[in-house]
Specification:
Structural class: mainly alpha
Helix content: 25-40%
Strand content: 5-15%
Number of strands: 2
Shape: globular
Distance between the termini: 16 Å
Radius of gyration: 16 Å
Number of domains: 1
Number of helices: 3
Length: 110
Amino acid sequence: MFLSLTPSSPFAGRYWNALEQSYLPNPSPEDIRVATFHNSTYGPDFKYAEFGPMFDATFYDPDYWADLFKRSGIKYVVLTSKHHEGWTNWCSKYSWNWNSCDNGVYSLPV
């Protein structure tokens, strides 16, 4: 199991893809629904980076997750410590203002 904890975790890649696709000619009904939700919830000018300070890992429950993984037969878990867009789950001078320290989740026992 590869576990990725980033500001995009609640939304996953499909959310962002659908949002981008909604601005192209002939978007799918799903893309339009995603864009409508995003724009009505966050506003049309809300950028991905604005999710950083909102990422508080509300549903972070390592004991529950470990039990679920064990019951599912998962043999190992790998934490994705640096996501493709540069987010790091540690303090980083190379990922300034885009890491778990600068955005408030550092206090979690990850």
